[in-house]
UniProtKB/TrEMBL annotation:
Family: Belongs to the peptidase S41A family.
InterPro entries: ClpP/crotonase-like_dom_sf (IPR029045), CtpA/B_N (IPR055210), PDZ (IPR001478), PDZ_sf (IPR036034), Peptidase_S41A (IPR004447), Tail-specific_protease (IPR005151)
Protein name: S41 family peptidase
One Pfam family in the UniProt entry: CtpB_N-like
Residues of the PDZ domain: 89-157
Native species: Thiobacter aerophilum
């Protein structure tokens, strides 16, 4: 038995060493991590492994046990670290290009359930009314409790045209909500734009992808051609944008900021995790790619701007809002953002799998950590037509997630934001927006943004 136990300890040790090598771990570089191996804990791991192999009601493959152990290690760290098996790794690579099969929701884990961080616009989930903060408790007839996040995501994805039934718990609702969705090929158009009225443009970014910077330049060029003369004001809508690629956030920031100014910096335990990303081509362009920023209309760097945010604005959205706010390039309007100020790095393990590991916190140019805090708007404006249940759902932020990473810096003191009280919807009045209009007329926050831009124009003329 001792020989068998020793063999299992070596297996466990090998797994841990393999992960460490995949992460380019260096005990010399990190003095805090140096020290003897936790032999007792490894022995316990090996004993559990052996007991499962010998006593579990059904035979279990070694591969499955090891994968479950890795899953458990990562899931126990924070809501965003995860193990990606070969299929999940491929799906992630495809999704960053803007097309994949599934329902169209950004999700995490909370109390063993799948929590919706944000539905992605123009997807089956968005159209079915799935909301930020919803807890998915069943997928078809299978309870989610006990599933890993990867397993749950794998079940939600599938062949386009197939159906899946979600059972959802939502704050403010007395009983679970059951909704059946039809899977689709999710083709996310990350940038949408509209000339709302002469002189005033609207750009909405739904997610940060590999081509978001190029698409933004195309949108601004389209506004320039349609308006014929420089815009008087621009609204950049980042509401319910769950984030995405870091270089996409840098690209969007660089479009509006002076060349080479600091956009965001990150800090972690390894040298690779310590970065300063500026509005420079090397931080948003792919190798050998032409600089599409050269096509920007001349007025883009100086046009008065309002950035719209809310509780569904997370990660890369907060990088952009924080950079434009700190450099006083735009006024931030809306409600407190989600507060995801951590960086996840995809680390391939060499066998077609990978781990998504939280490797750093990111900081705005002024040195503020957004983690578990979020971006505080300069002007707080609630959405007038939102229901109480939706307010509660959108109130769910990073700080509410189990095992969230702590904020390591107190935010620098800032002036108290201006707060505008939203009017209550008139009874009997239909407040539903036209789903096809990206800038609906009854969008109270957007209307306030346009009014503010017009006020700025009046002051500039004096």
């Amino acid at each position: 038995m001792r020989g068998k136990l020793h063999h299992l300890v070596l297996i466990a040790f090998g797994v841990l060493i393999g992960v460490a090598l995949g992460l380019h771990y260096s005990a010399i570089a990190d003095k805090d991590a140096a020290g003897p191996l936790p032999v007792e804990e490894l022995r316990t791991f090996a004993e559990v492994f052996g007991k499962i192999k010998s006593d579990y009601v059904e035979p279990v493959e070694d591969k499955k046990l090891i994968a479950s152990a890795i899953n458990g290690m990562l899931a126990g760290l924070d809501p965003h670290s995860a193990y990606l098996d070969a299929d999940a790794f491929k799906d992630l690579q495809v999704s960053t290009q803007g097309q994949f099969g599934g329902l169209g929701i950004e999700v995490g884990m909370e109390d063993g359930f799948v929590k919706v961080i944000s539905p992605i616009e123009d997807t089956p989930a968005f159209q079915a009314g799935i909301k930020a903060g919803d807890l998915i408790i069943k997928l078809d007839d299978t309870p989610v409790k006990g599933m890993s996040l990867n397993d749950a995501v794998k079940r939600m994805r599938g062949k386009p045209g197939t159906r899946i039934t979600l059972t959802i718990l939502r704050k403010g609702e007395n009983k679970p909500i059951v909704v059946t969705l039809t899977r689709a090929v999710i083709q996310i158009k990350s940038v949408k734009w509209k000339l709302m009225e002469p002189g005033y443009g609207f750009v909405r970014i739904t997610q940060f992808q590999d081509h978001t910077g190029e698409d933004l330049v195309g949108a601004l060029d389209g506004l320039a051609k349609q308006n014929k003369e420089p815009l008087k004001g621009l609204v950049l809508d980042l509401r319910n944008n769950p984030g995405g690629l870091l270089n996409g956030a840098v690209a969007v920031s660089a479009a509006f900021l002076p060349k080479d100014v600091l956009v965001v910096y990150t800090d972690g335990r390894t040298e690779d995790a310590k970065m300063r990303l500026t509005a420079s081509r090397e931080f948003y362009l792919r190798p050998n790619q032409d600089d599409y920023m050269k096509k920007l209309p001349g007025w883009v760097k100086s046009v008065p701007m309002i950035v719209l945010v809310n509780g569904g604005s997370a990660s890369a959205s907060e990088i952009v809002a924080g950079a434009l706010q700190d450099h006083k390039r735009a006024i931030i309007l809306g409600t407190q953002t989600f507060g995801k100020g951590s960086v996840q790095t995809i680390l391939p393990l060499g066998n077609g799998t990978a781990i998504k590991l939280t490797t750093a916190r990111y900081y705005t140019p002024s040195g503020t950590s957004i983690q578990a805090k979020g971006i505080t708007p300069d002007i707080v404006v609630e959405e007038a037509t939102i229901s109480e249940a939706d307010k509660q759902a959108l109130g769910v932020r990073e700080a509410d997630l189990e095992r969230h990473l702590a904020n390591d810096k107190e935010p620098a003191p800032k002036p108290e934001p201006i707060k505008l009280q939203a009017p209550k919807p008139e009874k009997g009045k239909d407040e539903k927006s036209d789903a096809q209009d990206i800038a609906p007329k009854n969008d109270y926050q957007l209307n306030q943004a346009v009014n503010l831009l017009k006020g700025i124009q009046i002051l500039q003329r004096r």
